Structures are given as structure tokens and as C-alpha cells.
Amino acid sequence: MAIFTPEELESDILNDLSEEIQELYEASEQTLIELELTPKDNELQRALFRSVHTIKGDLGLVGFMPMIEVLQYLEDILDLLRKGEIQYTSLLSDLVLRLMDKVTAFVSDCINKGRAEYDKDALDATIAIIKQIDANNGQQHELLLQKAINNLTHREDELSHTDSRIELAKTGIPKDLSPEKQGDLLFFRELMRPIEKRAGYKEGRGDRLAILAFYINALSDHPLPEDQLAVACYVHDFGMAFMPNHIVRKQGALSDLEANLLRSHVYKSTRLIEHLNAWDEARKIIMQHHENIDGSGYPLGITGDKICEGAKLLAILDRYDNLTNVEQENGDTLSAKEAVIALNTHYKGQLSNKWLRLFNQGMAKFLNQ
Q1: Which of 111, 252, 259, 263 has the most CB atoms at less than 10 Å from its CB?
Q2: Class of the 2-164 domain?
């Protein structure tokens, strides 16, 4: 491992650098998600190029040199992408994110510790690989990108063991949808953002739920339609936007009147898509996702097999996201492992044994990898 010690800089400059790098990282992450949906969108390709170019320039201004060369070659690849000379792929997205992770960790260490430790050999090997990517060897791009990723993660043998590592989907929009269904889902996803903000949820709730739903659903012997699951994950809380904000965000016990009003959000969410016949199953999932196996849920208090399978799965994921991303009364959230334990401890008899078993198995594999 190599050590880099930067020159002394004013704290204001370092704070500004840290904030801008973080903003550009988040912008790049969002752009990559959208590129998964529309990989040929030239505006998104250009936005990704600009983010990486700006980060490289910022590092040059403060003399954080070790990361600049690899960013230059990444910028060269993205320049080919925006010019239409190479194609966007999911592996390119992985490479960008892994390099951005390295850069943000490097900058953070320089600022907070006054020095940064980095793997120069891995960076040099990565540069040697990605500099081979050009407009004339498209058939080799996937292999070269995979090798570069392996070098960054110190797993040179990963290429022969790709099936052993769990990789979640990058977006909550299933692939191979009809244009009409894809349009609906993109619309629902956009609507979810202001609703998340109004209801006090951590940004990206709809995406988190849909991505996790795809992963757990794939473990089932009889998986559910991904498109219906995705719509339910995005739309199920739409009704929250039409509730009094002081009730939605209230800490502590609700009065009976407040609780009944809040529970009515399932009807409001369901009605918003009642005339969209393509999403009949999603509508049923939304209506029933607060029902419990033992009949203690709402709005109808139905039990067991009367609850559709998608609602049983969403009930687990909805609680899990609340535990890990919504502040409790004491102001804390749980870690992923703590939330899994809490689900199994506090909701006995309320959740589907089948889906809870698959959830436990899937999360154990994912968190332990």
C-alpha cells in the first residue's frame, strides 16, 4: 500500500471540496440508475462525463494527484460513450461506482486523517486495462471492464466465480417492459420522490423496496410478476401525500381518530390507479400490504391465504425499510442485521412464514458476503 500526504490547505477549501465530491458522487449514482433504464440517453451520458471531469479537476486544484490518472482514463471512456463510439453496459456502471468509491474514500482520509493509504498496484493495473478500451474493440469491452473491476476489488478470480456473489438490481424498473408499462413505472417513480419528502421518508424508498423485492422474489419457487411488485412498491404510500402532515410525522401514539385517518391511505393509494387495468395485481397488493396473517392488520382484517402473496412480501419489506431508514421515537434507526432480528422477534404471527423464511435466507447471504 502507498501513502499520500497532501499539502496543508485551509479548512474552508477542504470542506468545500468534500461537499462537492459528495454531491457529484450522488449525482453520478443517480445518473447511472437512469442510464440503466435508458442507456442511449445522450444527455445522461454527457452528465456522467461532466461529473467525472469536474471531480478530476477538483482533485487537481488541491494536488490530490494519485487518483487523477485513473480518472483521466475513465473520463476518456466516458468521452467515447457520449460521442456514441462505445455502448453503455452495466459493467461500465460498476466500474464508475467502484472508482468513485475509491476517490471519495481517498478524499475523506486526506481531509480527516491528513493522509491517505491507497493500493497503487491495483490502480496501475486498472489503468493498464481500461486504457485498452477504444472504439474499435467493442467485442472486448465486457471482458476488459470485468478485469478492471476485479483489480479494484482484489478479486482477480472473480471472473470465474461471478455466480457466487449477490448483486442487487440497480433500479426498481424491471427490464423488457412494454413502452406503456415502462412509461407508467417511470411516472410512478418520479411521483414517489415528493411523496417521500413530504412523508419524512429517506430519499429513494420506492427504489429500495422494489430492488429488495426483486431479490427476495427471485428466491421463491413461484416468483411473482416483477412489474406488479414494482408498481406496488412505488405507489403503496401515495396516499400519505394527502394526509395531514402533523399526523404523518407524529412521534408517539396516535389517537383512534388519527390512526383511522392514517390507515385510510391504502384506499387513497389504490384509487389512484383504479382505472389502469394493467396494474390490477399491484392494486390488490397495495390494498392488502398492511394486512397481517393473524387478522390484526387493516383495512379489512383478513387472514392467511386471503391475503395475496405480493402483499405478504411487501409487508415484510415495508417494515424492514421503516426500521432501517425511519427514525424511531429515540431518534435511532437500526442496522440491517438488527432490523432482520427485529422483524423476526416483534412480528411473530403477523408475517408470512414462507416469505419471512426467504427474506431471512436472502438477507443472511447478502449481509455476510
Answers
A1: 111
A2: mainly alpha
pLDDT at residue 200, as a whole number: 85
Q: Dump pLDDT digits (tens) for 216-271.
A: 999 998 999 999 999 999 999 999 999 998 898 888 889 999 999 999 999 999 99
At 154 the pLDDT is: 59
| The listed CATH number (3.90.950.10, 1.10.3210.10, 3.20.20.80, 1.10.3720.10) that belongs to domain 179-368 | 1.10.3210.10
Average pLDDT over residues 298-316: 97
d(CA 150, CA 156): 5
